[in-house]
Amino acid sequence: MTHVVPKSTYYMVFAALLTLTAVTVGVTYIHMGRFNLIVALLIAITKASLVVLFFMNVKNSSPLTKLFVVAGLFWMGLLVVLTFSDYVSRGWLAVPQSWSSEHKTPNVLR
Amino acid sequence: MSEPDTIQSTNAIPEPPVEHAHAHPAFQHHFDDMEQQFEASHLGMWVFLVTEVMFFGGLFAAYTIYRTLYSAAFADTSRHMDVILGGMNTAVLIGSSLTMALAVHAAQTNARRRLPWFLIGTIALGSVFLVVKAFEYTHKWHEHLVPGLHFQYEGPYAAQAQILFSFYFIMTGMHALHMIIGIGLLTYLIVKARRLAYSSEYFTPVEMVGLYWHFVDIVWIFLFPLLYLIGQHNLGGGHS
């Protein structure tokens, strides 16, 4: 009926998730400027992908299920990107100097 | 027309397909077979989970906006987060996802004796998480870090820190609520599993609760670095 994932896969994913958790905690104490955030998010996305693909077994799910998962992520992307484009284009969020010609200080901060 | 094995009358109840002739008690007649019934539930569960992604996604987007606005203040609050407890809880929750996955595996392979024990293990680990979370909340209460209720914060970031702790309590609180609901669902599964309701033929509820539990795990996988870790590297510096 559905694909039975061997237990060994679950154990390996579990070990990988624990390792990545240790890595993300360890990396936190290394000063890397803005890359601390990027590395933390990349590790979190990797962990989430492992859970979705193996624990939630999307890897062996029907194409329709995969389409729904991707559509959900796409919609989540719209939520974040459009919200941020709104804030940034109104000058409400600080962006690197080269990006904006005015609004050195975000209005919200005043 | 004269084939004897075709259904003659539309009033007659159609026979289930040959390979599913032993209709399972959980089989609902409006589906072709058990597999189609499972796929329908599976897809419906994913639609629900996508709405949950949107729910938590709104919170994460709002958090990210305020974090961008007040990055120095948000980084400063990291010193009030217990990385040891947070990291331990992350490991506990990942462990509970493993026992949940093994519970689904037990149901799929007809390991009916073991199934309730994996479910009990999942509840136990989930409860450990919630107890640790309760200790953290209590500690924050004593440190006057609960927004709106005698909130006190030293340094130049008192107002912005209150925003961060509002996000902290709403996001971890909604996450904890989801876990409490999950424990309720698992309890229901244990009662049914002990009556041998699930087998390799029918394990849909186990699979659905499993998907839900793993989703709650994923929310924490993002909450932990965003709330606990960011800013740890430059404590005292105040710039990020």
Q: Low-confidence stretches of chain B at least 5 residues in length (pLDDT < 50)?
A: 236-240
Give the total of domains of chain B.
1
Mean pLDDT score of chain A, rounded? 83
Largest interface: A-B, 57 and 54 residues
What does the main sheet of chain B amount to? none
* Amount of beta strand of chain A: under 5%
Structural class of chain B: mainly alpha
Number of E-state strands of chain B = 0
SSE order of chain A: HHH
CATH class of chain B: Mainly Alpha
Give the helix proportion of chain A (percent range): 55-70%
CATH architecture verdict of chain B = Up-down Bundle
Oligomer: heterodimer
Largest sheet of chain A: none
Topology overview:
The complex is a heterodimer of chains A (110) and B (240).
Chain A: H1 7-28, H2 35-55, H3 63-89
Chain B: H1 34-69, H2 71-76, H3 83-108, H4 114-142, H5 158-194, H6 204-229
Helix pairs in contact in B: 1-5, 1-6, 3-4, 3-6, 4-5, 5-6
Describe the structure.
The complex is a heterodimer of chains A (110) and B (240). Chain A is mainly alpha-helical and 110 residues long. Chain A folds into two domains: 1-61; 62-110, no CATH class. Chain A is built from three helices and no strands. Chain A is flat, with a radius of gyration of 20 Å. Chain A starts with 6 loop residues before the first helix and ends in a 21-residue tail after the last helix. Chain B is an all-alpha fold. Chain B has a single domain (45-232), classed as Four Helix Bundle (Hemerythrin (Met), subunit A) (Up-down Bundle), CATH 1.20.120. Helices cover 67% and strands 0% of the residues of chain B. Chain B contains six helices and no strands. Chain B is elongated and about 75 Å long. Classes of the chains: A mainly alpha (110), B mainly alpha (240). At the A-B interface, α1, α2 and α3 of A face α1, α3 and α6 of B.
